[in-house]
Amino acid sequence: MRGVNGRCAFASLDCTAYARPNLWAARWMAMVAGALELASGAAHCVAMKDAAERCDSGAMDEHYMRRALVEARAAAAAGEVPVGAVIVHEGRLIGRAHNQVERLRDPTAHAEILAITQAAAALGDWRLTGAAVYVTKEPCAMCAGALVLARVARVVWGADDPQRGGAVSKFRILDHGDLNHRCQYARGVLAAECLDLLRNFFREQRGRERGLASGRGGVVV
Predict the structure, then answer these.
(1) Which are the catalytic amino acids?
(2) pLDDT (tens digit, 9 = 90+) per residue, 50-71?
(3) CB-based contacts of 166: which residues, under 8 Å, 6+ apart?
């Protein structure tokens, strides 16, 4: 992964310098792992760019949302809320991540936040000008705010979040008139697949909780 002046964006990373070394080291190692895989797949990204240029915007949105769904399924397999995100800049995949809140014991370790950090390292700039973010669920208020701060050009999501959505459903952050940047957005791309993944995850989670309660002679409401 190349950063400023062609140097590896993670070459001088010293996780022990952080105040919370265990948590931050784990978080950064998770992002480094994703970044290294992205770097090793550079040729594949070029091929993806060529293919994407031949697609209309709807097909391109579905293509990258399927990449985000791969991340979301990885989250579900790890026992995390199944949300995945990828970030694309000029046809190149520069960030990909899934929720890792439980693994890192970090409430900010949402898919979008981790992917933003990867993408900023890839570009060597905190401004993700011209980048598009694809995420399987509507961003929460924290992530929507981070996307605005990162100057992301466009946000595409699958399933709406009527209860906590920070993009437009509950809190209208992405295009709020009082902010100094507004993101374009599209919603409902592969919404059924994204929503099914979330529903199945929480259904299975409730089933496990009922099983545990039954074994203890308790009740789960």
Answers:
(1) 112
(2) 455 545 788 999 999 999 999 9
(3) 138, 139, 140, 141, 142, 143, 144, 145, 173
